[in-house]
UniProtKB/TrEMBL annotation:
Highest taxon, organism lineage: Eukaryota
All copies of domain Disease resistance protein winged helix, residue ranges: 416-489
InterPro entries linked to this entry: Apaf_helical, Leu-rich_rpt, LRR_dom_sf, LRR_R13L4/SHOC2-like, NB-ARC, P-loop_NTPase, Plant_NBS-LRR, WH-like_DNA-bd_sf
Protein keywords: ATP-binding, Nucleotide-binding, Plant defense, Repeat
Family affiliation: Belongs to the disease resistance NB-LRR family.
Residue span(s) of domain NB-ARC: 172-326
Provenance organism: Lolium multiflorum (Italian ryegrass)
Protein name in UniProt: NB-ARC domain-containing protein
Molecular-function annotations in GO: ADP binding; ATP binding
C-alpha cells in the first residue's frame, strides 16, 4: 500500500513539473509582451510631459517649423502606441492572449520594442528643442511693486535703499540676486522685509518662501524646511520628497529666499524647479544671503547687494529708537555718552538694537559711563567690525546687562539647538526646567509661567528673535523663537564649562575625537541622522561624563549608542524624543542613577521595566505620543520614583484602550499618598477621573485623554453638576482630549480656569455642545473631528483667547455660528475673533455659511485659512484687514476659490490663495 501511494505521489510530482515547464515556456512570451508594453507606456508618459513643457514654454507664441514638426511626430507616436496597447489588451484570458500572440503576424512584444526605440529618439529631439526654448530670453512681467511708496520703520534710511534694490530685482531679467556681508549687518532682516512686502502687496508670485540653509545643512534638511513652509506632505525618501516638491512648484511662479548659505546647495536634488528665470510664462527667482560674495557668485547671482555697517546717522537713529528718546534727550550728558556707546557698536544693526535695548533702563550718567568703559575695555576699536572677536565682546556686554544669572544661563542654553532653528517656546521652557535653571516652584504651572516670562525678557532684549512657526505658516510667530547665528556662535564660546554641540549638522555617528568628549558638561547631538555608534566600549565615549545629553530627533538611533551612554553615571538630563526606540525599552537607561529628566516621547515603547525604579532621583518623565496604545506599567514602579514631579503618559493612537489599563498608576498614587505636581494620563472611565479628583491638590492632573467612558451620554468632567466629585481635576486641567465615546451632549459650565486645549474626535453621537462664557476664558485651541451629528459651534465666538480652530470630518455641520436662538450674536452685529490665527475647515460637506445670518466677521490676527471639502461654502464674510496686518494665506481647491462670492474687491485682496 505504501509503495503504491509513493508511486502515485511521484507521478503527480512528475506531471506537475512538466505542466510548470510547459506553462512557463508558453507564458514567457506573454510576460515579455507585458514588460515591453509597460516600458512603452512609461516612455510615452515622459514624452507627453516633455510635450506639455514645450507648449508652455512657447506659451501662445507662433510655433517655429522645427517644434511644429516635432509636435506632429510626438502625436503620431502617441497614436501608434495606442494601437499597440489596444492589441495587447484585446484578450484578458490566458488562452485567448496566447492564441492572439501566435496567430498575429506582428507579436506585441516585438512591435512594442520597435516603437520604444522610436519614442526614445523623439524624446531626445524634444529635449534639445526644449533646452533651446529655455535658453531664449523672455521679457519679465511688469514690476507690480513701487519700492519708494512702501512704509518702513523709522530710522532705516540705508535699509530702505537696500530694500529698494532687492524689490527692483523682482521685475528685472535676472534670475538670482546675492545679498552678502559680515554677520549681524542685516541680511536676514532684508530677506524678511522682502517676504513681508510680497505678502502685503499683490505679487506675481504664487509662493514666496524663506528657507534657512544653515552651515552643514543637507538636502534632507532643506527639503524639510521647504515642506514645512509650503505645507506639503512629508515623503519617506529624499527622492520621493524631491518629486513632491517639484510637482507642487513646477507650474507656479515663486520667489525663494535662501538665508545663511555657506556653500552652494543642490537645489535640483531638493526638488526646486530649474532653471531660474522666466520659464513658460512662470517667474522663478531666488535671493541668496551669505557671508561670502564668492558663494553668491557660485549661485549664479550676477547682481549682488553688499550689506555693510550702517553709517553714523542711520546707526544713531536705530540705537535711539531701541533705547527710547525719553532716556536720552532729557539729559545732555547722557545724550553725549549715548552717542559714544552707539559708536562702539561699529554700525552693526544687530548690536545697535540689542545694546540699545540693554541701555533702555539706564537713567543716570554714571550708568552710561560704566557701560562705555566696559565696551572700550573690550578693545573693540582694534577689531574689524563683524569679526569673531568684535561680535563676541558685544554679545558678552549684552549678556552682562541681563537682569540675572538665571536669564543669562537660559539664553546660553538656546545655543544647544541647531543654527537658525525655530525653537518651540514650550520645548525651550521644558528644557530649562529639566536642567534646573529656573527657581524651584511647588506648582509646575508657576514654573512654566516663569519660564515663558524669561523668554519674553530675552525677546525684549533682542537677543532672541521671533521665529517662524512653519506648522501654521505664521509670520511672525509667537510660538517659536530663534537665536541669531552670530549670537549663537558667541554664546558657545562664552558658555560656562565645556560644551560639545554638533546639532543639526548631518552626523551619522557621534564624534570620534576623545578630546571633544573629555570634560564636556553639556552634549547636544540633536537633529542629526546618527545610525552608527562606537565600535567598542573603549572608544571616544568611554571616558565621557556629561551632565546633560540631547539626542532628540535622531530617528534611527542605534542600540549600541545606548550601550555607550549607560556609563554616563553623572547624567542628570537625557532627551531621547523621536529616536526610533522600537518595542523593547532600552534597559541601559536604568543604569543612569542620577538622572532627573528623561524624555522618551514619540517612540514605540511597549512596556516600562520595573528597573526604571532605580532612577530614584528622577523628577520629570515625559512619554507623549507613544506609537503603541498599550504600554505596560508594572505595579510598584511609580511609588519607587519618589521624587517624580511630572509624569506624562500619552498614546498617539485614537483607539480605545483596554479596561483598567492605567489602574496601577492611580492605585499607587492613592495608596502611597504620593505627590504629583503635574500628571498627564489617559483614562477610559469617569470612575478613574473621580479617583484622581480626590487626590488633588497633592496630585494635579494637567492633561487627560478620555476614551470609551463606559457608554456615558454626557461629559461629566466639564459639568458644574459634578464639581463636588470632579472639582479637583477641573481646577487643574489644562488639556483635555476625548476620543471614541458615545457622548451625546457636552454642556461645559464648570469652572476650568486653566483649560487651554480641547480636542474631540469620533464622537459620532454628539448633538449638543454648549460652553458657558466664563467656563473657558483661557481656551486657546479647539479641534473637532468626525463629530457627525453637530450642526454648529456657536459657543466659539465667546472665546477671547482662541488662536486655533480646526474642524474636520463633521458631516452634519451646516454653519459655524448659529443665530440668536443658538446663542449667537444679533443679526448685523460684527463678530470678532480677536486672536484667531488658524482656521481650518476640512471635510464639511454641508457647511454653507460661517454665520447663519450672513453677518460680517473680523479676524484681526488671522494668518492662515484652510478650506477643503466644503463645496457649499460660497462666501467668506470677512471684513477687510487693517493696514499693516498682512495678507491671509488661504489654502483650498481651485474650483472652490474661483466660485467664491465676495462682498467687495477689498475683501478679496486680503487673501493670498494657495491652490492645491
Amino acid at each position: 500500500m505504501e509503495t503504491q501511494l509513493a508511486a502515485v505521489l511521484a507521478s503527480l510530482a512528475l506531471g506537475g513539473a512538466l505542466i510548470v515547464l510547459l506553462f512557463g515556456k508558453w507564458w514567457q512570451p506573454l510576460a515579455d509582451g507585458d514588460k515591453r508594453v509597460k516600458e512603452l507606456d512609461d516612455a510615452v508618459e515622459a514624452l507627453l510631459q516633455l510635450r506639455a513643457d514645450l507648449l508652455k514654454q512657447l506659451d501662445g507664441a507662433p510655433e517655429p517649423d522645427q517644434p511644429r514638426a516635432w509636435l506632429r511626430r510626438a502625436q503620431d507616436a502617441q497614436d501608434e502606441v495606442g494601437s499597440i496597447r489596444a492589441r495587447h489588451d484585446a484578450g484578458q484570458l490566458y488562452v485567448v492572449r496566447l492564441l492572439h500572440y501566435f496567430l498575429t503576424t506582428g507579436p506585441v512584444a516585438g512591435l512594442a520594442e520597435k516603437q520604444l526605440k522610436i519614442v526614445r529618439a523623439i524624446q531626445e529631439q524634444g529635449a534639445a528643442l526644449l533646452e533651446a526654448a529655455l535658453a531664449t530670453p523672455q521679457a519679465p512681467p511688469p514690476l507690480l511693486l513701487q519700492p519708494e511708496d512702501l512704509e518702513l520703520p523709522p530710522g532705516t534710511g540705508s535699509a530702505r535703499a537696500r530694500l529698494n534694490d532687492a524689490l527692483r530685482f523682482l521685475g528685472d531679467c535676472d534670475a538670482a540676486l546675492g545679498v552678502w556681508g559680515a554677520g549681524g549687518v542685516g541680511k536676514t532682516t532684508l530677506l524678511r522685509q522682502v517676504r513681508d512686502v510680497c505678502g502685503r502687496v499683490a505679487p506675481f508670485f504664487d509662493h514666496v518662501f524663506l528657507v534657512a540653509a544653515s552651515r552643514d545643512c543637507t538636502v534632507a534638511d532643506l527639503q524639510s524646511e521647504v515642506v514645512a513652509v509650503l505645507g506639503l506632505r512629508e515623503a519617506p525618501t529624499e527622492q520621493a520628497q524631491a518629486a513632491g516638491i517639484l510637482s507642487f512648484l513646477r507650474d507656479k511662479s515663486f520667489l525663494l529666499l535662501l538665508d545663511g548659505v555657506w556653500e552652494r546647495p543642490d537645489l535640483e536634488r531638493v526638488g526646486i524647479p530649474q532653471p531660474f528665470g522666466v520659464v513658460a510664462g512662470r517667474v522663478r527667482k531666488v535671493v541668496v544671503a551669505s557671508r561670502s560674495e564668492a558663494v553668491c557668485a557660485d549661485m549664479g547671482c550676477r547682481n549682488k547687494i553688499k550689506m555693510e555697517c550702517m553709517n553714523e546717522d542711520d546707526a544713531w537713529s536705530l540705537f535711539e529708537a531701541n533705547v527710547g528718546e525719553e532716556a536720552i534727550r532729557g539729559n545732555t550728558q547722557i545724550s553725549m555718552l549715548a552717542r559714544q556707546v552707539a559708536e562702539e557698536c561699529k554700525g552693526l544693526p544687530l548690536f545697535l538694537a540689542t545694546i540699545g535695548r540693554a541701555m533702555s533702563n539706564k537713567r543716570t550718567p554714571e550708568e552710561w559711563g560704566n557701560a562705555l568703559d566696559k565696551l572700550k575695555k573690550s578693545q573693540l576699536t582694534s577689531s574689524t567690525p563683524g569679526s569673531d572677536k568684535s561680535t563676541q565682546a558685544l554679545v558678552k556686554f549684552c549678556l552682562d546687562n541681563l537682569e540675572s544669572d538665571t536669564v543669562r544661563e537660559c539664553l546660553l542654553t538656546c545655543a544647544l539647538w541647531p543654527e537658525d532653528h525655530n525653537i518651540s517656546r514650550d520645548e525651550l521652557v521644558q528644557c530649562w526646567i529639566g536642567l534646573g535653571l529656573l527657581p524651584n516652584h511647588d506648582d509646575v504651572d508657576e514654573a512654566l509661567r516663569f519660564g515663558h516670562t524669561v523668554v519674553s525678557v530675552l525677546e525684549s532684549s533682542r537677543l532672541l528673535e521671533q521665529g517662524d512657526n512653519h506648522r501654521y505658516n505664521m509670520s511672525p510667530s509667537d510660538t517659536h523663537v530663534r537665536l541669531h547665528d552670530v549670537v549663537r556662535d558667541a554664546a558657545l564660546q562664552l558658555a560656562p564649562g565645556k560644551w560639545l554641540v554638533r546639532a543639526g549638522v548631518g552626523l551619522r555617528e557621534p564624534p570620534r575625537d576623545e578630546a571633544l568628549w573629555r570634560d564636556a558638561q553639556r552634549v547636544s547631538l540633536m537633529h542629526n541622522v546618527i545610525e552608527e555608534a562606537p565600535a567598542k566600549a573603549g572608544g571616544a565615549l568611554s571616558d565621557a561624563q556629561p551632565a546633560s545629553l540631547m539626542l532628540q530627533c535622531n530617528h534611527a538611533l542605534p542600540r549600541k549608542m545606548f550601550q555607550a551612554i549607560q556609563h554616563f553615571t553623572t547624567l542628570t538630563y537625557l532627551d531621547l524624543e523621536d529616536t526610533g526606540i522600537l518595542d523593547t525599552f532600552p534597559m541601559e537607561i536604568c543604569c543612569l542613577v542620577n538622572l532627573e529628566f528623561l524624555n522618551l516621547s514619540k517612540n514605540r515603547i511597549l512596556a516600562l521595566p520595573m528597573e526604571l525604579g532605580n532612577l530614584s532621583q528622577l523628577k520629570y518623565l515625559h512619554l507623549r505620543d507613544n506609537y503603541y496604545i498599550q504600554i505596560t506599567i508594572p505595579p510598584g514602579l511609580i511609588s519607587r520614583l519618589g521624587k517624580l514631579q511630572v509624569l506624562e503618559l500619552f498614546t498617539a493612537s485614537i483607539v480605545s484602550v483596554a479596561d483598567d489599563y492605567i489602574a496601577p498608576v492611580i492605585d499607587e498614587l492613592e495608596t502611597t499618598g504620593a505627590r504629583m505636581p503635574s500628571l498627564g494620563i489617559w483614562l477610559d472611565n469617569t470612575r478613574d477621573v473621580q479617583r484622581l479628583a480626590r487626590l488633588a491638590p497633592g496630585v494635579r492632573t494637567r492633561s487627560i485623554q478620555l476614551r470609551k467612558l463606559d457608554g456615558a451620554r454626557s461629559l461629566e468632567l466639564l459639568s458644574a453638576e459634578h464639581t463636588a466629585e470632579l472639582g479637583g481635576v477641573q481646577e487643574c486641567l489644562k488639556e483635555l482630549v476625548v476620543y471614541s465615546a458615545d457622548i451625546e451632549e457636552i454642556v461645559a459650565d464648570a469652572h476650568t480656569p486653566r483649560l487651554e486645549v480641547v480636542k474631540f474626535g469620533f464622537l459620532t453621537r454628539l448633538r449638543v455642545m454648549e460652553w458657558s462664557h466664563g467656563a473657558a476664558f483661557n481656551l486657546r485651541e479647539v479641534a473637532l473631528g468626525a463629530c457627525h451629528s453637530l450642526t454648529h459651534m456657536t459657543w466659539v465666538q465667546h472665546l477671547p483667547c482662541l488662536e486655533l480652530l480646526n474642524l474636520s470630518g463633521c458631516n452634519g455641520m451646516t454653519r459655524l455660528i448659529g443665530g440668536v436662538a443658538d446663542g449667537g450674536s444679533p443679526a448685523g452685529e460684527l463678530l470678532t475673533f480677536p486672536r484667531l490665527r488658524l482656521l481650518a475647515l476640512l471635510g464639511l460637506p454641508k457647511l454653507e455659511a460661517i454665520r447663519s445670518d450672513g453677518g460680517e466677521c473680523s479676524f484681526p490676527e488671522l494668518r492662515r485659512l484652510q478650506v477643503r471639502g466644503c463645496s457649499r461654502l460660497r462666501c467668506i464674510p470677512m471684513r477687510p484687514v487693517a493696514s499693516g496686518q498682512g495678507k491671509v494665506r488661504v489654502e483650498g481647491d481651485k474650483h472652490w476659490w474661483i466660485g467664491l462670492q465676495w462682498a467687495s474687491d477689498d475683501v478679496k485682496s486680503c487673501f493670498v490663495p494657495v491652490l492645491l
